[in-house]
Task: structure prediction
Amino acid sequence: MQTLKGTKLAIFFGLFPALLIYLGIAIVPIGLSLYYSVMNWNGIGSMTFVGIDNYVQILSNSTFWLSVKNNVIIMVTGLIGQLPLGLLLAILLNRGLKGSGFFRTIGFMPVVISSVMVSLIWGMIYNTEYGMLNNLLGFIGLEGWQQNWLGDVKWSMLSISIAYIWQNCGLYMVIFLAALQNIPDEVNEAAELDGATGFKRTMRITIPMIRSTIMVCVVYSISNSFRVFDLIQILTGGGPAHQTEVMTIYMYNSAFMNMRYGYGSAVSILILLFSLVVITLINRLAGEKDA
Amino acid sequence: MKKKSGLFQLFAYTFLSLFAIMNIVPLFWMVVNSFKKEQEYAANPFSLPTDFQFSNYVEAWKVANMDVYFFNSILVTLVSLIVTVLLGALAAYFLSRFQFKLRGLTYSLFLLGMLVPIHATLIPIFLIMQKLHLIDTYFSLILPYTAFHLSLTVFILEGFMRGFPKDLEESGVVDGAGIYRIFWSIILPITRPALATVIILNFIYNWNEYLFALVLITSSELKTLPLGLANFVGIETASLTLQMAALTIALIPIIIFYLLLQKQLVAGMTAGAVKG
Result:
Protein backbone atom coordinates (compact mmCIF):
# COMPACT_ATOMS: atom_id res chain seq x y z
CA MET A 1 0.00 0.00 0.00
CA GLN A 2 2.94 2.31 0.48
CA THR A 3 3.09 2.73 -3.26
CA LEU A 4 -0.09 4.76 -3.33
CA LYS A 5 0.38 8.42 -4.05
CA GLY A 6 -0.37 10.90 -1.35
CA THR A 7 -0.62 8.17 1.25
CA LYS A 8 0.83 10.20 4.06
CA LEU A 9 -1.60 13.03 3.55
CA ALA A 10 -4.51 10.61 3.34
CA ILE A 11 -3.48 8.96 6.60
CA PHE A 12 -3.21 12.34 8.25
CA PHE A 13 -6.68 13.42 7.18
CA GLY A 14 -8.11 10.05 8.11
CA LEU A 15 -6.80 10.09 11.64
CA PHE A 16 -6.92 13.79 12.35
CA PRO A 17 -10.63 14.30 13.14
CA ALA A 18 -10.84 11.32 15.47
CA LEU A 19 -7.60 12.24 17.20
CA LEU A 20 -8.59 15.86 17.56
CA ILE A 21 -11.87 15.11 19.33
CA TYR A 22 -10.36 12.28 21.33
CA LEU A 23 -7.27 14.12 22.51
CA GLY A 24 -9.14 17.38 23.07
CA ILE A 25 -11.98 15.92 25.12
CA ALA A 26 -10.56 12.74 26.67
CA ILE A 27 -6.79 13.12 27.07
CA VAL A 28 -5.95 16.82 27.42
CA PRO A 29 -8.48 17.18 30.28
CA ILE A 30 -6.47 14.68 32.35
CA GLY A 31 -3.52 17.05 32.09
CA LEU A 32 -5.81 19.96 32.89
CA SER A 33 -7.12 18.12 35.95
CA LEU A 34 -3.55 17.77 37.15
CA TYR A 35 -3.01 21.50 36.53
CA TYR A 36 -6.21 22.60 38.29
CA SER A 37 -5.41 20.30 41.19
CA VAL A 38 -2.61 22.57 42.34
CA MET A 39 -4.77 25.69 42.03
CA ASN A 40 -7.29 27.33 44.24
CA TRP A 41 -10.19 28.46 42.06
CA ASN A 42 -13.89 29.03 42.45
CA GLY A 43 -14.52 29.30 38.72
CA ILE A 44 -15.14 33.03 38.73
CA GLY A 45 -12.27 34.82 40.47
CA SER A 46 -8.60 34.46 39.69
CA MET A 47 -6.74 31.20 39.97
CA THR A 48 -4.00 31.03 42.55
CA PHE A 49 -1.25 28.45 42.73
CA VAL A 50 -1.38 26.55 46.03
CA GLY A 51 0.94 23.62 45.33
CA ILE A 52 -0.03 20.43 47.13
CA ASP A 53 -2.31 22.32 49.49
CA ASN A 54 -5.48 20.79 48.04
CA TYR A 55 -4.10 17.30 48.44
CA VAL A 56 -3.06 17.96 52.03
CA GLN A 57 -6.53 19.28 52.81
CA ILE A 58 -8.26 16.33 51.16
CA LEU A 59 -6.10 13.75 52.89
CA SER A 60 -6.81 15.30 56.27
CA ASN A 61 -10.55 15.47 55.63
CA SER A 62 -12.55 12.81 57.45
CA THR A 63 -15.43 12.93 54.95
CA PHE A 64 -12.98 12.07 52.19
CA TRP A 65 -11.76 9.03 54.11
CA LEU A 66 -15.35 8.02 54.70
CA SER A 67 -15.82 8.09 50.93
CA VAL A 68 -12.67 6.00 50.49
CA LYS A 69 -14.05 3.48 52.95
CA ASN A 70 -17.30 3.30 51.01
CA ASN A 71 -15.38 2.81 47.78
CA VAL A 72 -13.63 -0.12 49.42
CA ILE A 73 -17.02 -1.55 50.41
CA ILE A 74 -18.21 -1.24 46.81
CA MET A 75 -14.97 -2.82 45.59
CA VAL A 76 -15.31 -5.77 47.95
CA THR A 77 -18.98 -6.12 46.99
CA GLY A 78 -17.90 -6.46 43.38
CA LEU A 79 -15.11 -8.90 44.13
CA ILE A 80 -16.92 -11.23 46.51
CA GLY A 81 -20.51 -10.55 45.49
CA GLN A 82 -20.56 -10.19 41.72
CA LEU A 83 -17.63 -12.24 40.49
CA PRO A 84 -18.18 -15.58 42.30
CA LEU A 85 -21.92 -15.36 41.69
CA GLY A 86 -21.32 -14.58 38.02
CA LEU A 87 -18.87 -17.46 37.76
CA LEU A 88 -21.21 -19.94 39.42
CA LEU A 89 -24.06 -18.90 37.13
CA ALA A 90 -21.81 -19.20 34.08
CA ILE A 91 -20.69 -22.70 35.11
CA LEU A 92 -24.31 -23.78 35.56
CA LEU A 93 -25.33 -22.24 32.25
CA ASN A 94 -22.43 -23.94 30.48
CA ARG A 95 -23.72 -27.40 31.37
CA GLY A 96 -26.13 -27.40 28.47
CA LEU A 97 -29.26 -27.46 30.62
CA LYS A 98 -32.57 -26.82 28.95
CA GLY A 99 -33.59 -23.19 29.20
CA SER A 100 -30.05 -21.86 29.55
CA GLY A 101 -30.76 -19.24 26.92
CA PHE A 102 -33.73 -17.97 28.88
CA PHE A 103 -31.75 -17.64 32.11
CA ARG A 104 -28.91 -15.89 30.30
CA THR A 105 -31.29 -13.41 28.70
CA ILE A 106 -32.93 -12.59 32.02
CA GLY A 107 -29.60 -12.47 33.82
CA PHE A 108 -28.05 -9.94 31.49
CA MET A 109 -31.08 -7.64 31.39
CA PRO A 110 -30.11 -5.37 34.30
CA VAL A 111 -26.79 -4.62 32.59
CA VAL A 112 -28.60 -3.08 29.65
CA ILE A 113 -30.98 -0.93 31.65
CA SER A 114 -29.49 2.48 32.45
CA SER A 115 -28.03 2.80 35.92
CA VAL A 116 -30.40 5.72 36.47
CA MET A 117 -33.35 3.46 35.86
CA VAL A 118 -31.86 0.73 38.07
CA SER A 119 -31.36 3.27 40.85
CA LEU A 120 -34.87 4.67 40.54
CA ILE A 121 -36.39 1.20 40.62
CA TRP A 122 -34.36 0.20 43.66
CA GLY A 123 -35.21 3.51 45.27
CA MET A 124 -38.85 2.51 45.05
CA ILE A 125 -38.09 -0.96 46.40
CA TYR A 126 -36.32 0.51 49.42
CA ASN A 127 -38.85 3.30 49.98
CA THR A 128 -39.65 3.30 53.70
CA GLU A 129 -43.40 3.76 53.54
CA TYR A 130 -44.41 2.49 50.12
CA GLY A 131 -41.50 0.33 49.08
CA MET A 132 -41.75 -3.26 47.97
CA LEU A 133 -39.34 -4.56 50.56
CA ASN A 134 -41.06 -3.15 53.63
CA ASN A 135 -44.45 -3.98 52.17
CA LEU A 136 -43.36 -7.53 51.63
CA LEU A 137 -42.03 -7.83 55.16
CA GLY A 138 -45.31 -6.49 56.51
CA PHE A 139 -47.25 -8.80 54.22
CA ILE A 140 -45.60 -11.91 55.64
CA GLY A 141 -45.88 -10.70 59.20
CA LEU A 142 -42.32 -9.55 59.76
CA GLU A 143 -43.11 -5.92 60.60
CA GLY A 144 -40.23 -5.97 63.04
CA TRP A 145 -37.78 -6.40 60.17
CA GLN A 146 -38.94 -3.29 58.34
CA GLN A 147 -36.18 -0.71 58.09
CA ASN A 148 -35.39 2.67 56.68
CA TRP A 149 -33.15 0.88 54.18
CA LEU A 150 -31.48 3.89 52.63
CA GLY A 151 -31.84 6.40 55.43
CA ASP A 152 -30.47 4.32 58.26
CA VAL A 153 -26.70 4.30 58.59
CA LYS A 154 -26.73 0.65 59.62
CA TRP A 155 -28.41 -0.46 56.41
CA SER A 156 -27.67 2.10 53.73
CA MET A 157 -24.38 0.73 52.39
CA LEU A 158 -25.74 -2.81 52.46
CA SER A 159 -28.82 -1.73 50.53
CA ILE A 160 -26.65 0.00 47.95
CA SER A 161 -24.38 -3.02 47.66
CA ILE A 162 -27.30 -5.30 46.90
CA ALA A 163 -28.54 -3.00 44.16
CA TYR A 164 -24.97 -2.88 42.83
CA ILE A 165 -24.73 -6.68 42.70
CA TRP A 166 -28.12 -6.86 41.02
CA GLN A 167 -27.03 -4.38 38.39
CA ASN A 168 -23.69 -5.91 37.33
CA CYS A 169 -23.71 -9.61 38.15
CA GLY A 170 -25.09 -10.48 34.73
CA LEU A 171 -22.18 -8.83 32.98
CA TYR A 172 -19.64 -11.11 34.64
CA MET A 173 -21.94 -14.05 34.07
CA VAL A 174 -21.84 -13.60 30.29
CA ILE A 175 -18.12 -12.77 30.22
CA PHE A 176 -17.34 -15.99 32.11
CA LEU A 177 -19.79 -17.93 29.98
CA ALA A 178 -18.08 -16.74 26.80
CA ALA A 179 -14.72 -17.81 28.24
CA LEU A 180 -16.08 -21.23 29.25
CA GLN A 181 -17.44 -21.79 25.79
CA ASN A 182 -13.99 -21.10 24.39
CA ILE A 183 -12.54 -24.09 26.23
CA PRO A 184 -12.01 -26.80 23.61
CA ASP A 185 -14.14 -29.93 24.05
CA GLU A 186 -11.02 -32.12 23.99
CA VAL A 187 -9.87 -30.62 27.28
CA ASN A 188 -13.10 -31.60 29.00
CA GLU A 189 -13.09 -35.03 27.42
CA ALA A 190 -9.50 -35.63 28.45
CA ALA A 191 -10.35 -34.56 31.99
CA GLU A 192 -13.30 -36.93 31.96
CA LEU A 193 -11.11 -39.83 30.91
CA ASP A 194 -8.72 -39.03 33.72
CA GLY A 195 -11.62 -39.31 36.11
CA ALA A 196 -12.07 -35.60 36.79
CA THR A 197 -15.81 -35.04 36.84
CA GLY A 198 -18.29 -32.56 38.25
CA PHE A 199 -17.01 -30.39 41.03
CA LYS A 200 -13.47 -31.71 40.79
CA ARG A 201 -13.25 -30.91 37.10
CA THR A 202 -14.63 -27.45 37.70
CA MET A 203 -12.02 -26.65 40.34
CA ARG A 204 -9.02 -28.37 38.75
CA ILE A 205 -9.59 -27.87 35.04
CA THR A 206 -12.31 -25.35 34.22
CA ILE A 207 -11.39 -22.51 36.54
CA PRO A 208 -7.64 -22.65 35.82
CA MET A 209 -8.43 -22.68 32.10
CA ILE A 210 -10.25 -19.34 32.29
CA ARG A 211 -7.79 -17.83 34.75
CA SER A 212 -6.86 -14.95 32.46
CA THR A 213 -10.52 -14.01 31.99
CA ILE A 214 -11.02 -14.11 35.75
CA MET A 215 -8.08 -11.74 36.17
CA VAL A 216 -9.47 -9.38 33.54
CA CYS A 217 -12.79 -9.39 35.38
CA VAL A 218 -11.10 -8.71 38.72
CA VAL A 219 -9.33 -5.68 37.27
CA TYR A 220 -12.46 -4.58 35.44
CA SER A 221 -14.56 -4.93 38.57
CA ILE A 222 -12.08 -2.92 40.62
CA SER A 223 -11.84 -0.08 38.15
CA ASN A 224 -15.63 -0.04 37.90
CA SER A 225 -15.94 0.19 41.66
CA PHE A 226 -13.97 3.44 41.59
CA ARG A 227 -16.31 4.83 38.95
CA VAL A 228 -19.58 4.19 40.78
CA PHE A 229 -21.58 7.39 40.77
CA ASP A 230 -25.09 7.22 39.27
CA LEU A 231 -26.34 4.47 41.53
CA ILE A 232 -25.42 6.16 44.79
CA GLN A 233 -26.07 9.71 43.63
CA ILE A 234 -29.66 8.78 42.87
CA LEU A 235 -30.33 6.32 45.71
CA THR A 236 -29.00 8.40 48.59
CA GLY A 237 -27.05 11.35 47.18
CA GLY A 238 -24.26 10.22 49.51
CA GLY A 239 -26.37 10.64 52.63
CA PRO A 240 -27.37 10.22 55.39
CA ALA A 241 -24.66 12.57 56.64
CA HIS A 242 -22.07 11.48 54.03
CA GLN A 243 -22.38 7.87 55.19
CA THR A 244 -22.78 6.49 51.67
CA GLU A 245 -20.60 8.99 49.88
CA VAL A 246 -18.00 7.61 47.48
CA MET A 247 -15.03 9.48 46.01
CA THR A 248 -16.79 10.41 42.78
CA ILE A 249 -19.64 11.98 44.73
CA TYR A 250 -17.18 13.75 46.99
CA MET A 251 -15.52 15.14 43.87
CA TYR A 252 -18.83 16.13 42.29
CA ASN A 253 -19.94 17.92 45.44
CA SER A 254 -16.61 19.71 45.90
CA ALA A 255 -16.54 21.00 42.34
CA PHE A 256 -20.14 21.56 41.36
CA MET A 257 -21.88 22.18 44.68
CA ASN A 258 -19.14 24.06 46.54
CA MET A 259 -17.51 25.57 43.44
CA ARG A 260 -14.03 24.43 44.45
CA TYR A 261 -12.71 23.40 41.07
CA GLY A 262 -9.09 23.02 42.14
CA TYR A 263 -10.00 20.93 45.16
CA GLY A 264 -12.39 18.79 43.13
CA SER A 265 -9.73 18.23 40.47
CA ALA A 266 -7.32 17.06 43.13
CA VAL A 267 -9.94 14.53 44.26
CA SER A 268 -10.34 13.30 40.70
CA ILE A 269 -6.57 12.84 40.40
CA LEU A 270 -6.66 10.83 43.63
CA ILE A 271 -9.43 8.64 42.22
CA LEU A 272 -7.24 7.96 39.22
CA LEU A 273 -4.22 7.20 41.42
CA PHE A 274 -6.10 4.97 43.85
CA SER A 275 -7.56 2.84 41.08
CA LEU A 276 -4.20 2.55 39.30
CA VAL A 277 -2.45 1.55 42.53
CA VAL A 278 -5.01 -1.11 43.43
CA ILE A 279 -5.00 -2.54 39.92
CA THR A 280 -1.19 -2.64 39.79
CA LEU A 281 -1.11 -4.36 43.17
CA ILE A 282 -3.60 -6.99 42.06
CA ASN A 283 -1.64 -7.61 38.88
CA ARG A 284 1.56 -7.96 40.91
CA LEU A 285 0.01 -10.42 43.32
CA ALA A 286 -1.48 -12.47 40.52
CA GLY A 287 1.82 -12.44 38.65
CA GLU A 288 3.73 -13.72 41.68
CA LYS A 289 1.41 -16.68 42.00
CA ASP A 290 2.25 -17.64 38.45
CA ALA A 291 5.97 -17.77 39.11
CA MET B 1 -20.82 -35.42 29.37
CA LYS B 2 -24.27 -36.82 28.75
CA LYS B 3 -25.23 -38.21 32.10
CA LYS B 4 -26.08 -35.64 34.70
CA SER B 5 -27.12 -36.47 38.19
CA GLY B 6 -30.63 -35.50 39.16
CA LEU B 7 -29.29 -33.81 42.25
CA PHE B 8 -27.11 -31.51 40.19
CA GLN B 9 -30.03 -30.63 37.93
CA LEU B 10 -32.22 -29.89 40.91
CA PHE B 11 -29.59 -27.60 42.39
CA ALA B 12 -28.89 -25.89 39.07
CA TYR B 13 -32.51 -25.20 38.25
CA THR B 14 -33.34 -24.01 41.76
CA PHE B 15 -30.41 -21.65 41.78
CA LEU B 16 -30.99 -20.33 38.27
CA SER B 17 -34.69 -19.85 38.97
CA LEU B 18 -34.02 -17.92 42.15
CA PHE B 19 -31.63 -15.72 40.24
CA ALA B 20 -34.13 -15.15 37.45
CA ILE B 21 -36.83 -14.29 39.97
CA MET B 22 -34.53 -11.77 41.65
CA ASN B 23 -33.98 -10.14 38.28
CA ILE B 24 -37.58 -10.12 37.16
CA VAL B 25 -39.53 -9.30 40.30
CA PRO B 26 -38.46 -5.67 40.71
CA LEU B 27 -39.35 -4.90 37.11
CA PHE B 28 -42.56 -6.91 37.19
CA TRP B 29 -43.65 -5.28 40.45
CA MET B 30 -43.08 -1.85 38.94
CA VAL B 31 -44.95 -2.57 35.71
CA VAL B 32 -47.92 -4.15 37.51
CA ASN B 33 -48.29 -1.28 39.94
CA SER B 34 -47.93 1.34 37.24
CA PHE B 35 -51.45 0.35 36.18
CA LYS B 36 -53.00 0.98 39.59
CA LYS B 37 -54.68 3.94 41.18
CA GLU B 38 -52.55 5.44 43.92
CA GLN B 39 -55.06 4.35 46.61
CA GLU B 40 -55.21 0.83 45.23
CA TYR B 41 -51.43 0.60 45.39
CA ALA B 42 -51.37 1.89 48.95
CA ALA B 43 -54.02 -0.64 49.99
CA ASN B 44 -52.29 -3.67 48.51
CA PRO B 45 -49.02 -3.39 46.61
CA PHE B 46 -49.01 -7.09 45.73
CA SER B 47 -52.42 -7.55 44.16
CA LEU B 48 -52.94 -7.44 40.43
CA PRO B 49 -54.63 -4.24 39.27
CA THR B 50 -58.44 -4.52 39.31
CA ASP B 51 -58.93 -2.15 36.40
CA PHE B 52 -56.02 -0.94 34.38
CA GLN B 53 -55.28 2.76 34.75
CA PHE B 54 -53.87 3.62 31.36
CA SER B 55 -54.49 7.21 32.40
CA ASN B 56 -51.31 6.89 34.52
CA TYR B 57 -49.39 6.53 31.31
CA VAL B 58 -51.06 9.46 29.62
CA GLU B 59 -50.41 11.62 32.63
CA ALA B 60 -46.84 10.43 33.16
CA TRP B 61 -46.03 11.03 29.52
CA LYS B 62 -47.30 14.61 29.87
CA VAL B 63 -46.18 15.55 33.37
CA ALA B 64 -42.72 14.02 32.96
CA ASN B 65 -42.10 15.68 29.58
CA MET B 66 -41.30 12.28 28.18
CA ASP B 67 -41.66 13.47 24.58
CA VAL B 68 -38.95 16.09 25.07
CA TYR B 69 -36.58 13.68 26.81
CA PHE B 70 -37.09 10.95 24.24
CA PHE B 71 -36.44 13.40 21.44
CA ASN B 72 -33.26 14.72 23.08
CA SER B 73 -31.98 11.25 23.86
CA ILE B 74 -32.60 10.02 20.34
CA LEU B 75 -30.93 13.07 18.81
CA VAL B 76 -27.85 13.08 21.03
CA THR B 77 -27.49 9.30 20.91
CA LEU B 78 -27.75 9.05 17.13
CA VAL B 79 -25.53 12.01 16.26
CA SER B 80 -22.79 10.87 18.65
CA LEU B 81 -23.12 7.33 17.38
CA ILE B 82 -22.80 8.32 13.71
CA VAL B 83 -19.80 10.57 14.34
CA THR B 84 -18.09 8.00 16.60
CA VAL B 85 -18.54 5.11 14.21
CA LEU B 86 -17.52 7.06 11.10
CA LEU B 87 -14.43 8.62 12.62
CA GLY B 88 -13.60 5.45 14.52
CA ALA B 89 -13.90 3.27 11.41
CA LEU B 90 -11.70 5.64 9.44
CA ALA B 91 -9.08 5.69 12.19
CA ALA B 92 -9.27 1.90 12.56
CA TYR B 93 -8.78 1.54 8.79
CA PHE B 94 -5.56 3.52 8.74
CA LEU B 95 -4.31 1.90 11.94
CA SER B 96 -4.98 -1.62 10.71
CA ARG B 97 -4.08 -1.46 7.02
CA PHE B 98 -1.11 0.93 6.85
CA GLN B 99 2.37 1.11 8.23
CA PHE B 100 3.51 4.54 9.35
CA LYS B 101 5.83 5.94 11.92
CA LEU B 102 3.35 7.01 14.59
CA ARG B 103 1.01 4.04 14.13
CA GLY B 104 1.88 2.29 17.37
CA LEU B 105 1.73 5.44 19.43
CA THR B 106 -1.60 6.52 17.96
CA TYR B 107 -3.13 3.11 18.59
CA SER B 108 -1.90 3.03 22.20
CA LEU B 109 -3.27 6.51 22.74
CA PHE B 110 -6.71 5.39 21.62
CA LEU B 111 -6.58 2.36 23.91
CA LEU B 112 -5.54 4.51 26.87
CA GLY B 113 -9.05 5.97 26.86
CA MET B 114 -10.51 2.68 28.05
CA LEU B 115 -8.51 2.96 31.27
CA VAL B 116 -9.31 6.59 32.04
CA PRO B 117 -12.29 7.13 34.31
CA ILE B 118 -14.42 9.93 32.92
CA HIS B 119 -14.49 11.43 36.40
CA ALA B 120 -10.86 12.45 36.06
CA THR B 121 -11.85 14.63 33.10
CA LEU B 122 -15.23 15.89 34.20
CA ILE B 123 -14.20 19.21 35.71
CA PRO B 124 -11.92 20.28 32.82
CA ILE B 125 -14.58 19.27 30.30
CA PHE B 126 -17.14 21.35 32.15
CA LEU B 127 -14.76 24.32 32.15
CA ILE B 128 -13.84 23.84 28.47
CA MET B 129 -17.49 23.71 27.48
CA GLN B 130 -18.13 26.81 29.55
CA LYS B 131 -15.33 28.66 27.80
CA LEU B 132 -16.60 27.58 24.39
CA HIS B 133 -20.16 28.61 25.41
CA LEU B 134 -21.33 25.09 24.71
CA ILE B 135 -22.79 24.38 28.15
CA ASP B 136 -26.46 23.56 27.78
CA THR B 137 -26.25 22.66 24.11
CA TYR B 138 -26.47 19.31 22.37
CA PHE B 139 -22.81 19.71 21.43
CA SER B 140 -21.69 19.60 25.03
CA LEU B 141 -22.92 16.00 25.15
CA ILE B 142 -22.13 14.91 21.62
CA LEU B 143 -18.44 15.79 21.94
CA PRO B 144 -17.69 13.81 25.12
CA TYR B 145 -19.86 10.88 24.05
CA THR B 146 -17.91 10.73 20.81
CA ALA B 147 -14.51 11.20 22.41
CA PHE B 148 -14.95 8.57 25.11
CA HIS B 149 -16.42 5.90 22.89
CA LEU B 150 -13.81 6.25 20.17
CA SER B 151 -11.48 4.02 22.20
CA LEU B 152 -13.68 0.96 22.24
CA THR B 153 -14.86 1.62 18.70
CA VAL B 154 -11.31 1.81 17.35
CA PHE B 155 -10.28 -1.21 19.42
CA ILE B 156 -13.06 -3.46 18.10
CA LEU B 157 -12.91 -2.26 14.48
CA GLU B 158 -9.11 -2.30 14.26
CA GLY B 159 -9.01 -5.88 15.51
CA PHE B 160 -11.59 -6.91 12.95
CA MET B 161 -10.04 -5.08 9.99
CA ARG B 162 -6.59 -6.41 10.78
CA GLY B 163 -7.89 -9.91 10.21
CA PHE B 164 -8.65 -9.30 6.53
CA PRO B 165 -6.16 -10.82 4.04
CA LYS B 166 -3.35 -8.52 2.95
CA ASP B 167 -4.21 -8.50 -0.73
CA LEU B 168 -7.77 -7.39 -0.14
CA GLU B 169 -7.21 -3.90 -1.46
CA GLU B 170 -5.25 -4.98 -4.51
CA SER B 171 -8.15 -5.17 -6.90
CA GLY B 172 -9.11 -1.67 -5.85
CA VAL B 173 -5.58 -0.41 -6.45
CA VAL B 174 -5.52 -2.08 -9.86
CA ASP B 175 -8.77 -0.36 -10.72
CA GLY B 176 -7.19 2.92 -9.76
CA ALA B 177 -9.32 3.57 -6.68
CA GLY B 178 -7.94 6.00 -4.10
CA ILE B 179 -7.42 5.21 -0.45
CA TYR B 180 -10.75 6.62 0.67
CA ARG B 181 -12.57 4.92 -2.16
CA ILE B 182 -11.10 1.61 -1.03
CA PHE B 183 -12.16 2.35 2.55
CA TRP B 184 -15.70 3.17 1.56
CA SER B 185 -16.34 0.51 -1.10
CA ILE B 186 -14.20 -2.42 0.01
CA ILE B 187 -13.30 -2.20 3.69
CA LEU B 188 -16.48 -0.81 5.22
CA PRO B 189 -18.86 -3.33 3.62
CA ILE B 190 -16.92 -6.35 4.87
CA THR B 191 -16.58 -4.79 8.33
CA ARG B 192 -20.37 -4.91 8.68
CA PRO B 193 -20.58 -7.49 11.50
CA ALA B 194 -18.16 -5.53 13.68
CA LEU B 195 -19.87 -2.29 12.73
CA ALA B 196 -23.17 -3.71 13.95
CA THR B 197 -21.64 -4.57 17.31
CA VAL B 198 -20.05 -1.16 17.65
CA ILE B 199 -23.24 0.66 16.68
CA ILE B 200 -25.29 -1.28 19.22
CA LEU B 201 -22.75 -0.71 21.99
CA ASN B 202 -22.52 2.99 21.26
CA PHE B 203 -26.27 3.23 21.21
CA ILE B 204 -26.62 1.65 24.65
CA TYR B 205 -23.80 3.65 26.21
CA ASN B 206 -25.00 6.99 24.84
CA TRP B 207 -28.62 6.25 25.62
CA ASN B 208 -27.85 5.42 29.25
CA GLU B 209 -25.32 8.16 30.01
CA TYR B 210 -26.04 10.28 33.06
CA LEU B 211 -23.02 12.04 34.57
CA PHE B 212 -22.07 14.29 31.64
CA ALA B 213 -25.71 15.20 31.14
CA LEU B 214 -26.03 16.04 34.82
CA VAL B 215 -23.07 18.41 34.71
CA LEU B 216 -23.39 19.89 31.23
CA ILE B 217 -27.15 20.29 30.78
CA THR B 218 -29.28 22.55 32.95
CA SER B 219 -32.27 23.60 30.91
CA SER B 220 -35.12 21.12 31.00
CA GLU B 221 -35.73 21.39 27.24
CA LEU B 222 -32.36 19.77 26.61
CA LYS B 223 -32.41 17.03 29.21
CA THR B 224 -31.89 13.46 28.08
CA LEU B 225 -34.06 10.60 29.25
CA PRO B 226 -31.95 9.44 32.24
CA LEU B 227 -31.49 12.98 33.49
CA GLY B 228 -35.12 13.88 32.93
CA LEU B 229 -36.35 10.75 34.69
CA ALA B 230 -34.07 11.27 37.67
CA ASN B 231 -35.36 14.80 37.93
CA PHE B 232 -38.98 13.85 37.55
CA VAL B 233 -38.82 11.22 40.27
CA GLY B 234 -37.03 13.69 42.53
CA ILE B 235 -39.82 16.23 42.14
CA GLU B 236 -42.91 14.07 41.66
CA THR B 237 -42.68 12.30 45.00
CA ALA B 238 -46.44 12.33 45.64
CA SER B 239 -47.49 9.59 43.25
CA LEU B 240 -45.52 6.38 43.14
CA THR B 241 -47.75 4.85 40.48
CA LEU B 242 -47.10 7.84 38.22
CA GLN B 243 -43.36 7.38 38.71
CA MET B 244 -43.72 3.72 37.86
CA ALA B 245 -45.63 4.55 34.69
CA ALA B 246 -42.91 6.97 33.60
CA LEU B 247 -40.18 4.43 34.29
CA THR B 248 -42.09 1.72 32.45
CA ILE B 249 -42.41 3.97 29.42
CA ALA B 250 -38.65 4.41 29.43
CA LEU B 251 -38.01 0.75 30.17
CA ILE B 252 -40.04 -0.81 27.37
CA PRO B 253 -38.04 0.45 24.35
CA ILE B 254 -34.72 -0.58 25.88
CA ILE B 255 -36.00 -4.06 26.76
CA ILE B 256 -37.30 -4.53 23.21
CA PHE B 257 -33.99 -3.29 21.83
CA TYR B 258 -32.16 -5.75 24.04
CA LEU B 259 -34.34 -8.73 23.21
CA LEU B 260 -33.97 -8.07 19.49
CA LEU B 261 -30.22 -7.49 19.49
CA GLN B 262 -28.96 -9.33 22.54
CA LYS B 263 -26.53 -11.52 20.63
CA GLN B 264 -24.47 -8.63 19.28
CA LEU B 265 -24.83 -6.67 22.48
CA VAL B 266 -23.52 -9.49 24.65
CA ALA B 267 -20.77 -10.24 22.12
CA GLY B 268 -19.66 -6.61 22.13
CA MET B 269 -19.66 -6.25 25.88
CA THR B 270 -17.64 -9.41 26.37
CA ALA B 271 -15.29 -9.00 23.38
CA GLY B 272 -12.57 -7.05 25.11
CA ALA B 273 -12.60 -9.06 28.29
CA VAL B 274 -12.37 -12.54 26.84
CA LYS B 275 -9.61 -11.64 24.41
CA GLY B 276 -7.79 -10.30 27.43
Observations:
- The mean pLDDT of chain B is 90.
- The longest helix of chain B spans residues 240-275.
- The CA atoms of residues 58 and 155 of chain B lie 43 Å apart.
- Chain B has one domain: 62-275.
